[in-house]
Design brief:
There is one protein chain. The protein is an all-alpha fold and 149 residues long. It has eight helices and no strands. Helix 2 packs across helix 4, helix 4 packs parallel to helix 7 and helix 6 runs antiparallel to helix 7. The radius of gyration is 18 Å and the shape is globular.
């Protein structure tokens, strides 16, 4: 789906795909298979996420989403509903290269300014949580009282 022509014919195709709910069908596929829709509750190295990336259709769904969202704001707005889940998929290691496909789907959203802000917010939030977890591990290594008592 990444070879959809840019221009009026490509835009008409993407409009038709949106009208026929192709993107919504892809999002439903992901929603029903994602272990959690809350990024703070899911760990990309968990068995549930690893199982999800083994679904044979997932790589095609991500390719479709990335192709339809490229340079098409209406599709980008619909796809933005699942930015946290796609970000989680981006972090899961797999032989099917699902992480790269998820990254491509997120990359397709970057031309939409409001959606890009949501992506950056999520990336900052993920980084802050990672740093926080590293600090906790370091403090535990020093056997400090983290409870404050």
């Amino acid at each position: 789906m990444t070879s959809i022509p840019i221009g009026p014919f490509g835009r008409s195709f993407k409009d038709l795909a949106l009208e026929r709910r192709v993107i919504e069908g892809c999002l439903d596929y992901i929603r029903h298979r994602a272990p959690t829709l809350e990024p703070s509750l899911g760990r990309p190295d968990s068995d549930e996420w690893k199982e999800m990336v083994t679904k044979p259709s997932l790589k095609y769904v991500l390719r479709i989403l990335g192709g339809l969202a490229t340079d098409h704001e209406p599709s980008q707005e619909v796809l933005s509903q699942l930015i946290p889940v796609i970000h989680q998929l981006e972090q899961v290691s797999s032989d099917e290269h699902v992480g790269s496909l998820a990254e491509n789907a997120l990359e397709a959203l970057r031309s939409h300014e409001r959606v890009l802000e949501n992506i950056y917010f999520l990336l900052i939030e993920t980084t802050v949580k990672s740093v926080r977890n590293c600090i906790i591990v370091i403090l535990w290594g020093f056997d400090l009282d983290l409870e404050g008592s």
